[in-house]
Amino acid sequence: MNKQQLFENIKRKKSFLCVGLDTDIKKIPEHLLKEEDPIFAFNKAIIDATAPYCIAYKPNLAFYESMGVKGWIAFEKTVQYIKTNYPNQFIIADAKRGDIGNTSAMYARTFFEELDIDAVTVAPYMGEDSVTPFLTYKGKWVILLALTSNKGSHDFQLTTDESGERLFEKVLRKSQEWADDECMMYVVGATQGRMFEDIRKIAPDHFLLVPGIGAQGGSLEEVCQYGMTRECGLIVNSSRAIIYADKGETFAKTAGEEALKVQRQMEEQLKAIL
Amino acid sequence: MNKQQLFENIKRKKSFLCVGLDTDIKKIPEHLLKEEDPIFAFNKAIIDATAPYCIAYKPNLAFYESMGVKGWIAFEKTVQYIKTNYPNQFIIADAKRGDIGNTSAMYARTFFEELDIDAVTVAPYMGEDSVTPFLTYKGKWVILLALTSNKGSHDFQLTTDESGERLFEKVLRKSQEWADDECMMYVVGATQGRMFEDIRKIAPDHFLLVPGIGAQGGSLEEVCQYGMTRECGLIVNSSRAIIYADKGETFAKTAGEEALKVQRQMEEQLKAIL
Q: Are A234 and A205 in contact (CB under 8 A)?
């Protein structure tokens, strides 16, 4: 999916919501545990209920890997289910990978060739040759960690170098030597508030993947105020606040309602540009 | 396995070699492709041939993930095979993970609870709460990326901050507030040469996991000269130069011979401290 198509989907759905499929066997409704594949059963129901209100899904690999082989099967089935039934949804593998060149190339093969996923999150610490193998697939995206939503983001990402540039700013600037805004996005946490202003000085047109709304406490209004571009430029993720809003038999219906609530807030924010 | 036990193994084997199980279906001998699980068949033969000469194995997850479910099965079987047949071998999941707290906790559960692996490599970019969930398991290790072996390591890891400290130095220093040398090691590439002197100023007693010998061109002598401690303090990894030394039917025998060559060089280096 290219940038233009992504924006078309946002305009059509009046939403830039990404639903995070952080599916934890310990947190899904009990009645699903009797299913053959409870994780997939949960995801399928959540996807069917939320698809009208979002433009992207983001399974976090950690949750699937924690279940070993069974988890990988559920992950692959989930990706396949979205691709078959909702082909306009942008699929992000939240994997935060990054390794030496030949190894990053293996990860890229997994996500882009084997699974045909649209985007993968990548950690920048190892530099250029750990990122570029992900950039050789046409129509696929790298979403590079820049300024994350967690408390630990302050430990290294805000370190200021001799020239006054903070590490996340260097990541934003340097990575633009490797790829443009047609195949790279950045992770910027919703908890970072006015830092979006600084981000937009360096990356005015890039899409940003924004976690941290909901359970982590970030504000959608603030993100939009400081981060939105003429082409939206934002994919805002919510995981726990949507998928675990209700732990009973009505979990999917409630998840749909929560997604709808967020979509309506987003529709309001989109009025500024549409 | 604790630090003392690791050193005991090094003294007993006169080796601090880690064999990297970067097993790629496209690179293993052709005759194995008719096996039911070619990846596991390859690993099993490599492990049996090299176990006398090494003290650790390091499967890189990328290579297994690239094969999806089949890859995960091969990975789990490999870990189980080492644990059952060579219980003194230190097993490192080279995963370079790191995510927000609750997600890192899921990764930790995978590697330490489900698979009972000894150590996992972790990327530091997201800071303290992305690392600490891995530190709650007694006898288990975090191996934090500090100064990696690839060219891209120069992009961010060598960035000097206002106080004159380079990013990898900050990672070494800051992370010692979270854990000591009984449960944390660092990745330092063999290609970094005299940088080991600088590393030892900040982390004088920590074990270092050293990739980059062999195919990547690092020098064992230089690593030992500048990086070895009284308790060795080094686990030196070799992957491609050992496991793909021979692509014919004698691949395992040749891998054993290559591992023996490295072990002999290590025995020589260990004379300085034993």
A: no
pTM of the model: 0.96
Going by pLDDT thresholds of 50, 70 and 90, the confidence category of residue A10 is: very high
Q: Phi-psi region for residue B52, left (φ > 0), alpha (ψ -120 to 50) or beta?
A: alpha
Is the CB of B156 less than 8 angstroms away from the CB of A124? yes
B84: its two tokens:
């059952």
Flag whether pLDDT at A272 surpasses 90: yes
- Given the residues B11, B70, B96, B174, the one annotated as active site: B96
The beta-carbon neighbor of B157 closest among A109, A125, A174 is: A125
Ranges A144-148, B110-114, B229-233: which has the least confidence:
B110-114
Tell me how crowded residue A104 is: count the other CB atoms within 10 A of its CB. 24
Q: Verify whether residue B96 is a known catalytic residue.
A: yes
Strand, helix or coil for residue A59: strand
**pLDDT, tens only, B140-193:** 999 999 999 999 999 999 999 999 999 999 999 999 999 999 999 999 999 888
* CA distance, residue B261 to nearest chain A CA (Å): 25
Question: What residues of A are in contact with residue B154 (Cβ under 8 Å)?
Answer: 127
Find the closest chain B residue to A129 by CA distance: B152
Q: Which of B104, B156, B163, B170 to mutate to test the interface with A (most CBs of A within 10 A)?
A: B156
What angle (nearest 5°) sits at the alpha carbon of residue A145, between those of residues A140 and A146? 125
Among the listed residues A68, A78, A69, A70, the one whose alpha carbon sits nearest the alpha carbon of residue A22: A78
| Amino acid letter for position B96 | K
pLDDT of residue A112: 96
- To the nearest whole Å, the CA of A22 is away from the closest chain B CA by 9
List the structure tokens of B268: 């020589």
The minimal CB distance from A109 to the residues B66, B149, B174 is found for: B66
Give yes or no for residue A18 having a pLDDT over 80.
yes
Mean pLDDT of chain A: 96
Determine the pLDDT at residue A218: 84
The dihedral region occupied by A213, where left means phi > 0, alpha psi between -120 and 50, and beta the remainder, is beta
